[in-house]
Design brief:
The complex is a heterodimer of chains A (376) and B (620). By secondary structure, chain A is mainly α. Chain A contains 15 helices and three strands. Chain A has a three-stranded antiparallel beta sheet with strand order 1-2-3, with helices on one face. With 620 residues, chain B is of the alpha+beta class. In chain B, strands 2, 3, 4, 5, 10, 17 and 18 form a seven-stranded mixed beta sheet that branches. In chain B, helix 13 crosses helix 15. The chains are: A mainly alpha (376), B alpha+beta (620).
Chain lengths: 376, 620
């Protein structure tokens, strides 16, 4: 009997739990993130032509990303707050540098070659822009006044335009939405929100004018994919075929004919959701969406529990950006949004965005685990 | 900023923030519901549609071409076969530097710029992983040359394909015909499903006539492909059914004898087996080599064939229509006997010309000074025109038309070969219908000696001769004897049900006269009789090419060499037990007896010799 109680006391789960707490890791968030990552291994194995090399590389990235997350979770949120201006400034300078000396990849200048490793400054700005705005707004009483809104708007527009010029529409959209989310959570009045939406809508033709041809093409394709089935519409049509042919229960793991036979382009990166939907059907999709919603709920809970304005705004914004990621990617893959290069968070193959996302979760964990008055 | 102190209403801030979080959550849930609605639409409502599209995407049906049937002659010798042909092919995807590789190949094998151009044309039409032919029909030497250096040419290889080959070339060019690439017109007519994998189709001759039997049935393989069309694996395969092999009635040895005998002339020889209508010989000279047509003959070579004065593409046996000349005399003579317009004893004085009452125009005999007193036998033997002018006038055109029709003149013979022409057997009705003129007596006279409007094909003449030799049993020439496919062997037999009722003694009279043509002292083909121990019954003919004969002003100087008389000969042998009937027409050959008869003689001699050998070996 005694032995039993002792073994219960030192049972592995509680041991791991204690370790994770020590590492400032939020367990519910960590578990759901790990679940999605495991799921991504399954789908990547299938989408990438059952190549283990792909999985090894992705596993290494996830490993790096989790380590990075843990490191950031360790940092006190006050440190983020204190260095927000510095980090943001570095980010903007790097963005300018990319436009001047960046490497061209897939027709866009996004990469900065640091010799030993290539780096995408736009990824860094995804985190530092909301940090900056959150820090700036948290210095004043909320809701923000007109002057503060204007400064915040400039802080949003500058990196957004710099990224859009690379051109990287997807990332600039994410950066803009992360900044806007900070403003929204800071209590921007509904009247102003409506006014801004109206302004943006009226600016659409101007935006159209500044868009590159391929970006215009993507929008046109989105509006009518069947017009060019072998060209621009190909992605969307093939993706819809993949998803639709999956039905309710899907074709089973490794059963995706669309991806296995290369009909679906970018099947392991931006369009991985189509493979998932083809193999696991509607039921799998619902499960995945619920998993994402669980993560979002947990993050919003963390934001609510946060003890200072900076942390709240940052947590809220990071969570919202995560949702935008999910929504824009799935929306694009199922054909209700134009094709913009946004990966499906934690599922798509690729390094940089994975690290950024996990950095975001690291900050959220840091916010949650460094509260001064922990509830009992 | 730090200098300024602001009082924060923490409670108010908390309240606003909480409400914003809730709003955001609701917003997020609503948008996720939107995604779900769309997913439901795609995966439940549109499932069937998209599932079909996914299947269409990946399963491709690849046709498998059947092997074309082989064509044999009556003794089993191959007249048309499928030979592996080696071609040098290149897979662009696997070649690093295309220009450099082509350059090296060019210096190795001497590829012409046109071939390079053709290669690029093909290459651009297809996917880069499909092999494109660079050189066709490699010689053994070229194959060996390339094989030695193959490791230095990644992506370049030698491929073997089955290509139709005609070993006897010009000898069988018209009868067998050839296959060629399917053209657009044929594409419209041919059954699409059956010809999915086939590139060639019979264009003329037996190849065209028996296309459906020779072709076989296309098989197909259902192949799973990826987006680039590269096959991944095969799902289901239905093997093609090879085409039927054909055995012809043609004897290639005899065909060669006939073709060789025609050397130096343009003309045709047709020999039929008298009892059954087998087409032993169907030679048309000049012929042409049909093999280039299989690969796609060059425009230059084709134009040369087309514009040649000798018309090598023209199948004279089947489509050449010539005035039959005196070869009609046995038929007219028999008509005279049958209709009792004359009898064997009736004699006529031939002064070398014939005049209609009250008409000054003289219808000349080929012998200026005439044949003197002649009866039917002598008229046929010596080919006296005057006797037949007189007989024709007595018979009248209507009875001549009726009688000659029974022998198949003016109609297609019904041979199993496409493109046959039916010649022309004139009648009063025909002239009224076509020429819008009434019939003249003069036209009756010249029809009696096979001139005027009348035209026959060598095949028709051979068939009429065989029918005559058969004592009125009409035979239909038959080229394909056996059709052997995987399931069954079909033996075709000629229709011999039709019989012209003729009196035996009339036939004997005509046969005797025809025998005298060859064996009589004054016969026009008496040279043939040398060295044979059987009798040949025949009739020479010399047909005038120009039909201006009726016109009184007839200037011989104006007639070009090409319009010299055609030489004809028709014969059957042995006279008392006919086995073979032959018709020979030599264009502009001059006299039938000296040019056409020896050709027929060679065919007859060789055939009867082979029959004798067959019988002897059969009996022992």
């Amino acid at each position: 009997m005694k032995q039993e109680t002792r073994s219960e006391h030192f049972s592995p789960p509680s041991l791991i739990g204690a370790l994770l707490r020590k590492l400032h890791i939020d367990i519910p968030l960590f578990v759901s993130l790990a679940l999605i990552c495991l799921l991504s291994f399954l789908v990547l194995y299938s989408a990438g032509g059952q190549e283990t090399g792909l999985l090894v590389r992705q596993a290494m990235r996830i490993g790096v990303a989790f380590v990075f997350m843990t490191l950031l979770a360790h940092v006190n949120p006050n440190q983020f707050k204190r260095h927000s201006l510095l980090l943001f400034s570095i980010g903007v300078i790097l963005l300018v540098a990319v436009l001047l000396v960046g490497d061209v990849g897939k027709g866009a200048q996004r990469w900065l070659n640091l010799g030993f490793f290539r780096f995408q400054p736009s990824e860094m700005i995804k985190i530092t822009a909301p940090m900056m705005i959150a820090w700036y707004l948290s210095e004043y009483s909320l809701p923000p006044k007109f002057k503060q809104i204007c400064v915040a708007a400039i802080l949003i527009v500058v990196p957004t335009v710099l990224i859009a010029k690379q051109p990287d529409l997807g990332t600039s959209l994410l950066v803009a939405s992360s900044g806007a989310a900070v403003l929204f959570f800071s209590g921007l009045s509904w009247r102003l929100i409506l006014a801004i939406i109206t302004l943006l809508a009226s600016l659409t033709p101007v935006l159209w004018h500044f868009m590159r041809d391929y970006q215009k093409g993507r929008v046109l394709t989105f509006l009518n994919p069947e017009a060019d089935p072998m060209g621009r519409g190909y992605h969307i049509i093939q993706s819809k075929i993949a998803i639709g042919s999956g039905g309710i229960n899907g074709k089973g793991w490794l059963g995706s004919t669309q991806a296995q036979l290369d009909f679906l382009p970018e099947s392991s990166t931006d369009f991985i959701f189509a493979v998932f939907a083809e193999e696991f059907g509607l039921s799998g999709c619902l499960g995945l969406l619920i998993l994402y919603l669980l993560i979002i709920s947990r993050c919003l809970y963390i934001a609510v529990q946060a003890q200072d304005t900076y942390s709240r705004l940052l947590a809220g914004s990071l969570t919202f950006t995560f949702f935008v990621y999910v929504f824009v990617n799935i929306g694009m893959v199922i054909g209700i949004l134009p094709v913009v290069g946004v990966p499906l968070p934690l599922m798509s193959y690729g390094g940089t965005s994975m690290v950024t996302l996990m950095a975001g979760f690291g900050i959220l964990m840091s916010i949650h685990t460094h509260r001064k008055f922990l509830p009992t | 900023m730090y200098g300024k102190y602001t009082v924060k209403d923490t409670l108010q801030e908390n309240r606003i923030f909480l409400s914003r979080i809730v709003t955001a959550f609701v917003f997020i849930v609503l948008l996720m519901l939107g995604l779900i609605v769309r997913l439901v639409y795609l995966q439940i409502v549109g499932h069937e549609h998209y599932a079909t599209m996914a299947k269409d995407n990946r399963i491709k049906v690849v046709p498998l071409q059947p092997t074309r049937g082989i064509i044999y002659d009556r003794k089993g010798r191959i007249l048309a076969e499928n030979l592996p042909s080696y071609s040098l092919e290149l897979i662009p995807e696997q070649v690093k530097d295309l220009e450099e590789t082509l350059g090296r190949l060019q210096s190795l094998l001497g590829i012409s710029p046109e071939q390079i151009e053709q290669f690029h044309k093909v290459r651009k039409r297809q996917k880069s992983f499909s092999s494109a032919p660079l050189l066709l029909r490699l010689s053994d030497e070229e194959v060996a040359k390339f094989a030695a250096v193959r490791p230095y040419f990644p992506g370049v290889d030698i491929h073997a394909r089955l290509v139709r080959h005609y070993p006897y070339k010009a000898l069988t060019s018209h009868v067998i015909g050839y296959v060629g690439r399917i053209n657009e017109q044929e594409l419209k007519i041919l059954p699409v499903e059956e010809y999915r994998g086939t590139h060639h189709v019979g264009k003329i001759g037996v190849e065209k006539t028996y296309e459906s039997q020779l072709h076989g049935n296309t098989g197909y393989a259902e192949i799973e492909t990826n987006a680039q069309g590269r096959s991944v694996n095969s799902v289901d395969t239905h093997d093609p059914i090879p085409g039927a092999n054909l055995t012809l009635t043609l004897d290639i040895d005899l065909q060669k004898t006939a073709y060789d005998a025609l050397e130096g002339y343009n003309g045709s020889a047709v020999a039929l087996s008298v009892p059954d209508g087998d087409v032993l010989v169907m030679a048309s000279r000049p012929g042409f080599d049909p093999n280039p047509f299989v690969y796609g003959i060059s425009r230059k070579a084709y134009t040369a064939l087309q514009t040649s004065d000798d018309q090598p593409l023209f199948h004279r046996s089947l489509r050449g229509q010539y005035p039959p000349g005196s070869t009609m005399k046995p038929f007219i003579g028999l008509a005279g006997l049958e209709y009792k317009a004359t009898d064997a004893e009736h004699k006529l004085f031939c002064p070398g010309f014939y005049q209609l009452p009250n008409v000054s125009h003289r219808f000349r005999d080929w012998k200026k000074w005439g044949h003197g007193m002649v009866n039917l036998d002598q008229a046929i033997t010596q080919s006296c025109d005057v006797y037949f002018y007189d007989l024709a006038l007595t018979l009248g055109i209507s009875r001549m038309h009726e009688f000659l029709s029974k022998f198949g003149f003016g109609q297609k013979t019904g041979i199993d070969l496409v493109g046959e022409l039916g010649g022309l057997l004139p009648s009063k009705e025909w002239k009224k219908r076509v020429k819008k003129q009434s019939w003249y007596h003069g036209e009756t006279l010249i029809t009696g000696i096979g001139q005027g409007f009348m035209q026959v094909t060598p095949l028709q003449l051979a068939r009429a001769t065989a029918t005559l030799a058969n004592r009125g049993a009409v035979i239909t020439p038959l080229l394909v004897k056996r059709i052997v496919d995987q399931q069954q062997e079909t033996v075709q037999t000629a229709d011999t049900s039709e019989k012209i009722s003729l009196k035996q003694h009339n036939l004997d009279d005509v046969f005797r006269a025809m025998t005298h043509v060859v064996h009589g002292a004054r016969g026009t083909a008496r040279r043939l009789a040398k060295g044979i121990d059987y009798q040949i019954a025949g009739k020479t003919g010399t047909a005038q090419v120009f039909t201006v004969k009726q016109e009184e002003e007839y200037n011989e100087d104006e007639i070009a060499d090409k319009l010299k008389d055609h030489a004809l000969f028709m014969a059957f042998a042995p006279a008392h037990n006919p086995q073979i009937a032959v018709a020979v027409i030599v264009e502009n050959g001059g006299h039938g007896g000296s040019v056409a008869a020896p050709i027929a003689g060679k065919i007859i001699r060789q055939y009867l010799q082979s029959l004798k050998v067959e019988n002897e070996t059969g009996n022992s």
